[in-house]
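Please decode residue identities from the backbone states below.
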């Protein structure tokens, strides 16, 4: 094996003595897509472009979505949030939820800055973040991250806690049926067939415990991941134990959750004393959740099971005009609205399109098309059509008012958002960039020293085909890779077909679409840099404390030091001053002396009511009085980060003085302070 890899590496070295310049200008693209905030992205994200500008636009929007949801907890590092607005059911005071963790890590594993995924995993396992409020497949996500970065130590760091959390789910294990069950609400899917039918059609928010394809697929995937991690750690007994657990779940899912009548994986009711449903009775309609077993390769490669995919393409079943229905259209309570918050409809899973489950189904479909022989009726053209359909859901409005803003759920026929609440804007309970990199581009991460690429594109002439694409600066096993498809060689001028580059050198090529593999010798990942923001405060009223010259509502003042940073106009964020020509200030009281040497300031401007200050300076309390420590020239950056440095000093208070521009209000999105 090693000789084969060395031979491939040696052959790759002969392709070119010096790497050509990158085919894409990352700096230009970053500035075009992210404006003044471009430096954050240019250093971190893999870049992508294709013959479909809408896919490209959503790809970069999704990275801005990812950045917006990175909450800085100070010494506890960064986590990913699901909502930008606070919700009652989050884990306070962090605003974390464990149900979206799989999507967060699947996206974050592709960043060249590994801190975000690393901190998040530490928080979920060492910091108690995985409180099992919802079902999840986080252990499998840790394994998935390892497949990209190859960091053995990081993957194994929390193995004992991962095993402990797995066993806690025994409370949801039916030892008679040998399957897991869950209330749909705690599966993050309220108002499903099992819960609505368990209420006699009258409700469905709570109740409806069921043996679901979701929780059983998750526990299968987590058990398989724990087995693989244990083997890597040298614990063969644990590896065997969890491999056996995974296979037992697989057997029962295939035997008991597959419906011959519906040719689909379905729920069975678990409620033992319910007047409306019977224990072990199968639900009466197909749901989108039935495709989740393919997301984790639980399903055998047999035509018997692959026939389930025809329902996804059937307008009389799960195929809406604008997206995938969560239950088929002939369900008795399809799209009945049960729940309102004031005048606005709330979340339901009895028909609406959810980016959450759309992502999961597209992952399962990518697996099917990549390495199954029995495909049923689906094709690569179907995959790209459904991916484009999902892409379209990211756009809101029409004409010049059209903007990118992903919301919670959508009407399956119109594609219009259903919930429409403030919390729904820029919602992060789904994935997209992982779909682009693993599906469209076709990077299939592996544990060995091999890079495998298989783009899921149809051949030229198909209406869903792409003539060209390129993914560049993609991290893989400590290297940076690029994958290029150029059908006739005319777009990039580097030759016809599919090619792979590793650290800037072309190492493999084929003239047509198809699977392409090459050896990639793993390298050490860059050390993770972890500067600590000393100014962040999650709990209002505790030190550090903010104060301001105007608009002193505690919530408004606190928002500038809450660890949240985004520039979306739909959701105001940060301290907003009163509109006035008078000078404004924002101060932070640490309650004790701290050593500080630099700051990061984020200001929002919209060309209307908010503008960055035309002048500003930073002061610190020294010897009982305010001393100016930084007086930058000109205005700070709008919708980006302004960096300030000074010789480190020890102080207990800092104050930012600002001169408004044209009497407009100032919005200080976030005020961060660091030791160095």
């Amino acid at each position: 094996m090693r000789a084969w890899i060395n031979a491939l590496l040696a052959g790759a070295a002969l392709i070119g003595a010096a790497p050509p310049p990158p085919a894409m200008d990352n700096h230009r693209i970053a500035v075009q897509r992210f404006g003044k905030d471009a430096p954050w992205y240019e250093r971190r994200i893999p870049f992508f472009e294709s013959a479909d500008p809408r896919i490209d636009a959503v790809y970069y929007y999704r990275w801005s979505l990812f950045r917006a949801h990175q909450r800085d907890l100070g010494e506890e590092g960064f986590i990913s949030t699901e909502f930008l607005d606070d919700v009652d059911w989050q884990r306070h005071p962090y605003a974390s939820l464990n149900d979206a963790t799989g999507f967060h890590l699947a996206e974050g594993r592709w960043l060249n800055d590994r801190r975000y995924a690393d901190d998040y995993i530490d928080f979920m396992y060492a910091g108690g973040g995985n409180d099992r409020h919802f079902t999840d497949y986080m252990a499998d996500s840790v394994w998935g991250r390892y497949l990209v970065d190859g960091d053995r130590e990081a993957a194994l760091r929390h193995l004992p806690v991962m095993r402990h959390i797995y066993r806690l789910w025994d409370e949801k294990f039916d030892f008679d049926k040998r399957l897991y069950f869950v209330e749909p609400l705690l599966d993050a899917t309220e108002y499903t067939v099992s819960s609505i039918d368990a209420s006699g059609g009258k409700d469905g928010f709570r109740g409806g415990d069921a043996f679901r394809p979701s929780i059983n697929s998750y526990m299968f995937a987590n058990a398989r991941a724990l087995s693989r991690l244990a083997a890597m750690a040298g614990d063969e007994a644990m590896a065997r134990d969890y491999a056996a657990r995974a296979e037992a779940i697989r057997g029962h899912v295939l035997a008991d959750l597959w419906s011959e009548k519906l040719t689909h994986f379905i729920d069975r009711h678990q409620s033992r004393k319910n007047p409306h449903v019977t224990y072990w009775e199968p639900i009466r309609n197909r749901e989108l959740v039935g495709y989740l077993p393919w997301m984790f390769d639980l399903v055998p490669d047999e035509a018997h099971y692959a026939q389930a995919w025809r329902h996804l393409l059937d307008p009389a079943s799960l195929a809406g005009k604008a997206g995938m229905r969560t239950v088929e259209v002939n369900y008795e309570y399809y799209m009945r609205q049960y729940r309102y918050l004031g005048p606005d409809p709330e979340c339901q899973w009895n028909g609406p399109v959810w980016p959450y489950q759309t992502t999961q189904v597209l992952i399962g479909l990518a697996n099917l098309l990549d390495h199954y022989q029995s495909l049923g009726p689906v094709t690569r053209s179907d995959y790209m059509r459904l991916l484009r359909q999902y892409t379209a859901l990211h756009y809101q409005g029409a004409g010049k008012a059209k903007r990118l803003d992903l919301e919670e759920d959508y009407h399956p026929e119109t594609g219009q958002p259903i919930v429409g609440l403030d919390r729904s804007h820029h919602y992060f309970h789904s994935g997209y960039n992982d779909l682009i990199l693993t599906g469209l581009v076709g990077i299939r991460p592996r544990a060995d020293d091999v890079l495998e690429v298989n783009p899921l594109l149809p051949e030229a002439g198909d209406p869903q085909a792409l003539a060209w694409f390129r993914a560049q600066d993609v991290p893989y096993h400590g290297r940076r890779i690029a994958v290029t498809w150029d059908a006739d060689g005319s777009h990039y001028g580097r030759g016809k077909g599919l090619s792979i580059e590793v650290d800037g050198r072309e190492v493999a090529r084929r003239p047509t679409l198809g699977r392409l593999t090459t050896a990639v010798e793993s390298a050490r990942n860059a050390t993770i840099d972890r500067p600590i923001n000393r100014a962040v405060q999650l709990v209002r009223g505790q030190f550090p404390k903010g104060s301001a010259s105007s608009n002193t509502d505690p919530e408004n003042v606190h928002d500038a030091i809450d660890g949240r940073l985004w520039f979306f106009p739909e959701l105001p964020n940060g301290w907003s001053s009163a509109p006035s020509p008078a000078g404004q200030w924002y101060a932070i009281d640490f309650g004790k002396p701290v050593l500080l040497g630099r700051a990061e300031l984020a200001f929002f401007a919209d060309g209307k009511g908010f503008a960055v200050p035309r002048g500003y300076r930073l002061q610190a309390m020294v010897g009982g009085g305010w001393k100016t420590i930084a007086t930058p020239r000109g205005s700070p950056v709008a919708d980006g980060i302004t960096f300030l440095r000074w010789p480190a000093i020890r102080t207990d208070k800092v104050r930012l003085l600002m001169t408004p521009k044209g009497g407009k209000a100032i919005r200080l999105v976030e005020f961060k302070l660091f030791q160095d």
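Observation: Residues 580 and 663 are 5 Å apart (CA to CA).
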